[in-house]
Specification:
alpha/beta; Rossmann fold; 2 domains; seven-stranded parallel beta sheet; two-stranded parallel ribbon
Length: 353
């Protein structure tokens, strides 16, 4: 009888690569999704529902799973209420945390490096449940629990099919504007910082290598590459394989455009260099087994640019702010009256600032 894996929120950047890796280990896989999806594989089942919903989750946990890989983004209070149920519902619970839990470091970040939660003095920030803080708090819930069947994994920025970033901008902004031949504004300060970007296919191999191994219980792993580059070099890869034009702008103006102040100041403005020796050792891997950034990112970018990509969810507010800074204009043809108004009002707002 095949072992059964439950992937909570497993249709994202990492999950789509985890599924084929689990197939190699002959698992029957169940993936929660909020959109109706069809599977052509009898061992892959999509479960339509919101994994944040308490009743839906309780129904899922009525059966005992061999492994649960949890990609969900919870508030700390939400996780506190469901942690015990998740841990009791499986032989092995893998919690997907983030490298963003770590504080700034002048040396490569290892699993025991200081965390933001422990060293930051910014009281306003500490009063939030921002992503880096919430993941750290949820890690603590697991560590301080009476359960022993958990493993914490921390990916870095992970690029994947139609999912890649430049600073804090996502593919739907980068490629959309590249297709139009209009500039993408990026903070000149962020472009000088060092980042770690790992291909999702490699992350998936590292995750699945841990599945159902008792020796990894109560352990944490940085599931990352050790390669790091400055954001300027990442931008260069995009410009080589798309029509992307980069416009360097003042850092404060960038924040005005994209928001996400804490993500910028407590992550993108840090030099993020990761140590992955622990995960490589437990999985019998080497750094040379992982995909170099230039090779992996260029292939994912080319995959999206080789086909015509039509973006449905255009953020007219953000693009208006970008256009004002870069003296460009996205076409409003086909936009609803509501979206045209949003665009024009945001464009004028930035002008006033």
């Amino acid at each position: 009888m095949k072992k059964k894996a439950l992937l909570l929120g497993g249709t994202g950047a990492m999950g789509i690569y985890v599924v084929p890796e689990l197939f190699k280990k002959e698992y029957e896989i169940f993936v929660t999704t909020r959109k109706k999806r069809k599977s052509d594989n009898s061992d892959l089942h999509y479960l339509l529902g919101n994994a944040h919903d308490k009743i839906f989750l309780e129904q899922l946990l009525q059966r005992k799973w061999d492994v649960i890989i949890d990609f969900m983004v919870y508030t700390t209070e939400e996780f506190k209420l469901r942690a015990s149920d998740l841990l009791e519902g499986t032989y092995h619970y893998i919690f997907v945390s983030s490298y963003r839990v770590f504080a700034n470091s002048e040396t490569p970040i290892v699993e025991k490096s200081p965390k933001l939660l422990d060293v930051v003095k910014d009281k306003d920030y500490l009063e939030t449940d921002e992503y880096g803080l919430s993941k750290a708090r949820q890690e603590s819930i697991l560590v301080n629990s009476s359960y022993k069947n958990w493993t914490i994994i921390r990916p870095s920025i992970t690029y994947s099919k139609e999912r890649f970033q430049l600073a804090t901008l996502e593919a739907d902004s980068i490629i959309f504007r590249a297709q139009l031949g209009i500039p993408v504004p990026v903070s000149e300060k962020i472009l000088t910082k060092r980042t770690t970007m790992t291909w999702a296919g490699d992350v998936a191999k590292m995750i699945v290598g841990l599945v159902n191994r008792a020796e990894v219980f109560q352990e944490d792993y940085n599931v990352v590459t050790s390669e790091s580059v400055i954001w300027k070099d990442v931008a260069q890869i995009y410009t080589e394989f798309t029509n992307l034009k980069i416009c360097k702008i003042n850092h404060s103006n960038y924040i005005k455009i994209v928001g996400n102040y804490y993500q910028i100041e407590y992550d993108r403005m840090f030099n993020r260099i990761m140590d992955n020796s622990k995960i490589l050792k437990i999985n019998g891997m080497r750094q040379t087994d992982l995909t170099p950034l230039r090779k992996g990112l260029s292939e994912e970018v080319k995959n999206i640019t080789d086909k015509e990509k039509v973006f449905q969810d255009i953020n007219y507010v953000t693009h208006a702010k970008m256009d004002r800074i870069t003296h460009s204009r996205i076409p409003l043809k086909g936009a609803s009256l509501k979206n045209r108004c949003k665009y024009l009002l945001s464009y004028l707002e930035i002008k006033k600032q």
